[in-house]
Amino acid sequence: MTLDKVVQASGGSARAPHAWKSVPRWATAILSRLAKLGLADQAQQTLKELQKSVKIDVVHWGAASQACRRWPQSLDMVQSAKELGILPNEFVFSAAVTSCTQHRAWRMVLDLFSECSRRRRLNDFLNVGAIAALSWESSLHLLETTRDRHIQTQQVTFSAAMGTCSKAQVDLWRAASGLLESMSLCNITLNIVACNTHADACAGARRWQQALAAVRKMTQNALQVNLISFNSALAACEKGYEWKRCLSSLSFMETARVMPEIISFGSSISACEKGMQWHLASEHLQHMCHRRFHADAVALSAAMSACEKAGQWEAALVLLKPTLGASRGVFDLSCAFSAALSAAERGGAWVAALALLDTAARARCPLSGMFAGAVASGIRKAHGEEAAVEFLTRSRWQWEGASPPKAVNLDTGDLLPGVQILAEAPGLVVIAKESDVRTEVLVNAARKLMRQELFVVSRLDRPTSGLLPLARGLHAMNWLQAQFAGRLVHKEYACLCEGSPLGPVGTCGCIDTPLHAWNWAGEVGRTVVAPFGREAITEYEVKERFRGAGSELMLLSVQPRTGRMHQIRAHLASISRPIVGDVIYGNLSSPVQCHRLFLHCQRLQLWDLSSKPLAVSMPLPPALQRYLEALRQPL
């Protein structure tokens, strides 16, 4: 954009295009416009033109400085202002600090801070602006260097640095705690913003003890604990599975004359759900409604999930009914209906689940194959698989208009592997996955090879090899989802585990302890046995036994009846029979070593889009076959 066009866009006259040179107000508007467009050269040219006709002040210089994106230009603006006798204000310094910060010109930033420390009214503004714009690593480094050079820092400076820690997707509660202690060492009075930011960082890291201690520290320093403080403490207790402390904190809120709101109740209800306290979750949901708060999706789903885990499907339906009219159009009831359907399915009430599915349709709740699958699972238990498949076939029309799944960028940048197609059927394709290949990368390759939209319904872990079913199109995706939810898909894995003997060849067993997936930011996801976890069932049969170094090796045929993350690996590790080659759940000090995870999906049985059964097999990869052959050789 030319300068003349900027002049016109800023209110200049087309008949008198140079009138702005004698009207300071117009000149400021033009400079601000140039700053928004990032036209630094034109802004500097405009300043030179102004010097010929009007007296330039710090307002003009500050507006022009905002246009500078490159740090040398910003520093030139600061120096030029001094040479003209213009005392730079916070906008001039802020532009320079921001550009230097973005280009990691730390020495220049510190020099600017040193100069600003002599102008106390500018110091807070600049420190906060620079630190808040940085990553947590850079903000801590900059703050530490600032202190080493004895540059004055204030409350808001530390608060900004702690803000970068609380927003980071890693566990930085220790860094935030250290900053809080540093404030005391620097004789800086604690403020509510810094304490709240510290509590929020602790909540994000599931450090409920530290979050509660932060609230206590506020009261000890005569700070008024507010809603943000309590919500951080409640969230920390909820994430730490401390339902009793969460409810105690909620009660203390009213004592402190802080009224709970939707987020507060949501944390307490979720805590009760994780603590297997379905009756307390229900009571708090009702208490929330009595306070004239409309139950949101999080609170309602958590309360109903608590009922589902406790087998209280009637209570789940009671909670759902009042919200059907009140929440219509306010939030999506999909999660609530899903929990209610699961509760009815687990309770064997497939007739009630069928009626609930009809209610969901009449409530215009977005339906998917997951909903019908929950009903099909109950029908399967009562009348067998054929009846369940027949129900799914007849109810397909309900999800034909289902919303498409969220767009996922499968273009990971990885070198695309070769795709081996093992079977094709109406709506389905089954491909072979090798170990150390991510499911997303393989699906991306299959899409490009087959030139059609493919959807993943059940993925394989990266170190696992074997059969991977894909849905061809949205309708097929919902059909496959319904089968997995209805437990009509049968998978059989071959795995080699170590530990004490499970029994002679042919011994069968079942592991049915609930599993909970941990997905902490910055860490590898893990699944653990937990009473508040989701239902998980793994059946196994001993196929071969081998003598190991200090323990026995067992080749198992494993059939997972549910589809939890790392289910087979976590279940076998929970009974002290970890899979050989498992670097997450295995015994790293074991003398038994394998170059990869000995887990392979070798058989798959499901139903295609024409309701016909499809069975596919895949032998063990050559490397695993050679490993077994070596074990079979006599010593």
Automatic annotation (TrEMBL):
<dbReference type="GO" id="GO:0000455">
    <property type="term" value="P:enzyme-directed rRNA pseudouridine synthesis"/>
</dbReference>
<dbReference type="InterPro" id="IPR011990">
    <property type="entry name" value="TPR-like_helical_dom_sf"/>
</dbReference>
<dbReference type="InterPro" id="IPR050188">
    <property type="entry name" value="RluA_PseudoU_synthase"/>
</dbReference>
<dbReference type="Pfam" id="PF13812">
    <property type="entry name" value="PPR_3"/>
</dbReference>
<dbReference type="InterPro" id="IPR020103">
    <property type="entry name" value="PsdUridine_synth_cat_dom_sf"/>
</dbReference>
<comment type="similarity">
    <text>Belongs to the pseudouridine synthase RluA family.</text>
</comment>
<dbReference type="GO" id="GO:0003723">
    <property type="term" value="F:RNA binding"/>
</dbReference>
<dbReference type="InterPro" id="IPR006145">
    <property type="entry name" value="PsdUridine_synth_RsuA/RluA"/>
</dbReference>
<dbReference type="GO" id="GO:0009982">
    <property type="term" value="F:pseudouridine synthase activity"/>
</dbReference>
<dbReference type="Pfam" id="PF00849">
    <property type="entry name" value="PseudoU_synth_2"/>
</dbReference>
<dbReference type="InterPro" id="IPR002885">
    <property type="entry name" value="PPR_rpt"/>
</dbReference>
<protein>
    <recommendedName>
        <fullName>Pseudouridine synthase RsuA/RluA-like domain-containing protein</fullName>
    </recommendedName>
</protein>
<feature type="domain" description="Pseudouridine synthase RsuA/RluA-like">
    <location>
        <begin position="438"/>
        <end position="574"/>
    </location>
</feature>
